[in-house]
Design goal:
Blueprint lengths: L11 H4 L1 E11 L13 E12 L4 E5 L6 H8 L7 E6 L2 E2 L5 H6 L1 E4 L12 H11 L4 H14 L15 H13 L5 E5 L7 H13 L3 E5 L3 H7 L2 E6 L2 E7 H5 L2 H6 L6 H14 L25
Parallel strand pairs: 3-8, 3-9, 6-7, 7-8
Antiparallel strand pairs: 1-2, 1-4, 4-5, 9-10
Helix pairs in contact: 4-5, 4-6, 5-6
């Protein structure tokens, strides 16, 4: 198992993440969602080790049920009772530090409707800064900057119910950008997006220079947004390394319940035709190639 390395001493004090011997279990219910008091637990995460450096973008992949969303929730204290060491921005993830951690961390939920609860885009994006007591002038500045980052200035007064799924996803992203986070956690950010809005989201995320952890089944999306990837299987990190190397390893992915990204399948076929064989070293995509790295930034 490969473990990430600290890129500089004390990197987590800027706004990185440190996890060592991290474990987490859920109490077992009775099948009706009620804890049965048996004391039995289901182990979700086992002896997890990884470090994320300040402003690093890291993908989190794995089949359903391996603990990706649980790990994201642990980072902001939405799941309790872990064992081991877990630090965010140099602070232990515990009750006394949660307010400070959450003020600097933005969490984008898979379901945008869970994140947007006010009537208009402006009201939702302004909610966080207002809640933290910023002045009216500062709230306006933050909302304007957040909407500019996601290219939605013209939709600031749009009612939420009149927006498309792609527009809602970008509005959800704007709600956390208005808090100017140092860490962004994104759970399946490309889910339910059409190709154009998906490309737009990739472009936007690549422009935002903060620490990012992106959990997704969309391996092509991870390839386009993350230089490094953590592969979870059976509650453990089974590989930690360069994204193109992990996502190009067919055998590793299949053993972990995944498949090669679509963008690499074509390369695999070409290699087979040229060499008559495919191997781990045959795969890999640079940050250019067939993967999206730019775009107009327009919202459709």
């Amino acid at each position: 198992m490969g473990h990430g390395k600290d890129k500089e001493p004390g990197f987590e004090k800027k706004f990185g993440i440190k996890a060592e011997h991290l474990c987490f279990s859920y109490p077992i219910g009775n099948g009706n969602g009620i804890i049965n008091g048996s004391g039995k637990e289901k182990q979700v995460l086992q002896d997890i080790h990884f470090h994320v450096a300040d402003k690093e973008s890291v993908g989190l992949i794995g089949a359903n049920g391996v603990g990706k969303s649980t790990l994201l929730k642990l980072l902001v204290g939405l799941a309790n009772g872990y064992g081991g060491v877990l630090r965010v921005g140099g602070l232990d993830v515990e009750k006394k530090n949660l307010a400070a951690i959450r003020k600097s961390t933005g969490y984008v939920f898979q379901d945008s409707d869970s994140q947007l609860f006010l009537s208009t885009v402006y009201e939702d994006v302004a909610f966080g800064p207002r809640n933290y007591g910023y002045s009216g002038e500062e709230v306006e500045r933050r909302v304007a900057e957040a909407l500019k980052q996601v290219h939605m200035e013209e939709l600031r007064d749009r009612q939420i119910y009149r927006m498309s799924g792609g527009q809602k996803k970008l509005a959800s992203l704007a709600t956390i950008l208005s808090m100017e986070p140092q860490l962004m956690l994104l759970d399946e950010p490309s889910a339910a997006l059409d190709p154009r809005n998906r490309r737009n989201l990739i472009h936007i995320l690549n422009e935002i220079a903060v620490t990012k952890v992106i959990a997704s089944h969309d391996l092509d999306f991870i390839l386009d947004t993350c230089e490094r990837t953590l592969l979870l299987f059976d509650g453990k990190i089974v590989r930690d390394g360069k994204t193109e190397e992990i996502l190009g390893d067919r055998k590793l992915l299949e053993e972990s319940g995944l498949e090669l990204p679509l963008g690499l399948k074509g390369q695999n076929n070409n290699q087979k035709k040229e060499n008559g064989i495919g191997s781990k070293g045959d795969f890999g995509a640079g940050k250019g190639g067939t993967h999206y790295r730019g775009g107009s930034g327009k919202v459709f």
